[in-house]
Amino acid sequence: MTTVDSAVLVEREAGIARITLARPDRRNALGVGDFADLHRALAEIAASAEDRAVILTGSGRAFCAGADLSDVVPDAATAAIMRPINEAVRALHRLPQPCIAAVNGPAVGAGMSLALGCDLVIAADTASFAQIFVKRALSPDTGSSWLLPRLVGLHTAKRLALLGDLITAEQARDLGLVTEIVPADTLLDTAADYARRLAAGPPIALALTKQLLNAAFTTGFDDALDAETAANAVNVGTADMAEAFAAFREKRTPEFRGR
């Protein structure tokens, strides 16, 4: 286990990096310094060829209760406070490896943003979600205003953000925010199963696929075709593609190495 200072723990096993938000006494609410540590952990994972898939989860009964700003100096500039927070969110969005949120309990405010910033969201039946910002007299941050309309449509995003109501895991799944709901005691095993499948995949193709899909709502169709062509020009030159075709011919499981 690699321990990153404060509330961010990173464990590695068989190509899977598991990040645990570890402030259970505060329902894993993250201080500004904790977000900086999360950014460093994500940057380290992004640069590692050994880390092939990522799981993000919380300790105790909550996933993440959002940002903990209790230790922020009252007259501190908002931009200065948000800079390290946004850097962590940006690093999660740009992470080349596929990332799974294993949502074990409430994911509210910035915690909901972190969950939705992952590529797959596996929720325990005890999980819940809320855009709680408005109930704190705040507007959405940590990427929620960008993520929500793309995931659920504009009017549903407005309902979630303007009312700030807590929704269940089942309601989140019905809206398309959750990939799968499982019993709480099988959450990490289920997330690990997904992570193993992703870790066994071709890293370069997976990273390029994430880039293409993340750009889908801001890219015109013709530009998307060009980007797909450019991505596959890279893929065609990889040893992983040669391995994929060889494995198909030989009727065996391919072994991808990320090159």
Folded structure, characterized:
The chain is of the alpha/beta class. The chain has two domains: 2-199, 2-enoyl-CoA Hydratase, Chain A, domain 1, CATH 3.90.226; 203-250. 45% of the residues lie in helices and 16% in strands. It has helices at residues 32-46, 78-94, 110-116, 144-152, 154-163, 169-174, 187-199, 203-214, 221-236, 239-250, and strands at 2-4, 8-13, 16-21, 53-58, 99-103, 106-108, 120-124, 128-130, 167-168, 180-182. The strands form two sheets. A seven-stranded mixed sheet has the order 1-2-3-4-5-7-10, sandwiched between helices. The longest helix has 17 residues, at 78-94. The two termini are 27 Å apart. 41% of the residues are buried. The mean pLDDT is 94.
Beta-strand content estimate = 15-25%
**Coarse structural class:** alpha/beta
In helices, the fraction of residues equals 40-55%
Gyration radius over CA: 19 Å
Which helices and strands, and how do they pair?
Blueprint: E1 2-4, E2 8-13, E3 16-21, H1 32-46, E4 53-58, H2 78-94, E5 99-103, E6 106-108, H3 110-116, E7 120-124, E8 128-130, H4 144-152, H5 154-163, E9 167-168, H6 169-174, E10 180-182, H7 187-199, H8 203-214, H9 221-236, H10 239-250
Parallel strand pairs: 3-4, 4-5, 5-7, 6-8, 7-10
Antiparallel strand pairs: 1-2, 2-3, 8-9
Q: What's this entry about, in short?
A:
With 259 residues, this protein is α/β, with parallel strands linked by helices. The protein has helices at residues 32-46, 78-94, 110-116, 144-152, 154-163, 169-174, 187-199, 203-214, 221-236, 239-250, and strands spanning 2-4, 8-13, 16-21, 53-58, 99-103, 106-108, 120-124, 128-130, 167-168, 180-182. Strands 1-2-3-4-5-7-10 form a seven-stranded mixed sheet, sandwiched between helices.
